[in-house]
């Protein structure tokens, strides 16, 4: 079942059109307007229990999509549904179904202990004391909140604050979590802990997660599937394995030889060559040539001391998308 549905979503913003001919006073008093299209017919869906990474470079339309999904922005056209509800027209209903965490902003009250915000949220969401106690026990354990549940938010480290935010987003047991840059600004250890928590929450509760992030490790370690957007439209969507197969269909094997070879270094059906007298490489399309065939050929025909297989990484593919666009690489 799809918990998030986005269909032909467009969103335009009315913005002042700078008129260089007119002076600043005239621009202020008689502004001219134009429309900036942030989303231009975006469609995607997220199934129950999935973690999907929504990716795109700056200005691609990720935040605008998230805001439409939270009911903060009214789409210009198209539709969004969260658990079957229109988040703009039925905001209260939709908000019960979703929890939101912004890595850059907190939803917690700054001056009061974390537990006090949680108690207030219990009343806002009308969660029974029994359910609240059960979920609180669970998030405290999963997110490791016990040490700072009674500390005011202003005294927390960034990593603790984001974990407390995650707990707050989860108190009413939403079906969907929107995580907007959840690991931004965290150090390596805190990032890694937070990723573990997110994975554990999903595995233990089956919550559906839509994630935007610029951290490519978040994508690699958390997402089941990615959706790449650019200029407000979808460029590609697929599981991590599909993305790798589509955009990086080649594998490279680095070979260490135990002695010089006389003659060329060749593997049928692959590109291959010597890097130095005792090191060589083989590059081949995984779809055309099984790796066992390549390694078998190497072992039979060359004095191989060791070899390493370099599989493509999703991180590299997305990095390439950010820098060069989506071209299928040629070996
Ligand atoms: N309130 C607004 N008024 C005018 N234009 C806006 C507004 N919000 C977003 N935009 C424009 O819409 C486009 C998409 O912006 P959006 O913030 O959704 O991108 P993003 O993918 O979240 O970028 P980033 O990674 O930098 O956060 C951009 O061109 C942006 O300038």
Automatic annotation (TrEMBL):
GO terms for molecular function: ATP binding; ATP hydrolysis activity. Its main location: membrane. It is a peripheral membrane protein. Residues 4-256 form the ABC transporter domain. It holds the Pfam family ABC_tran. It comes from the Bacteria. Gene3D superfamilies: P-loop containing nucleotide triphosphate hydrolases. Keywords: Antibiotic resistance, ATP-binding, Nucleotide-binding, Transport. This is ABC-2 type transport system ATP-binding protein.
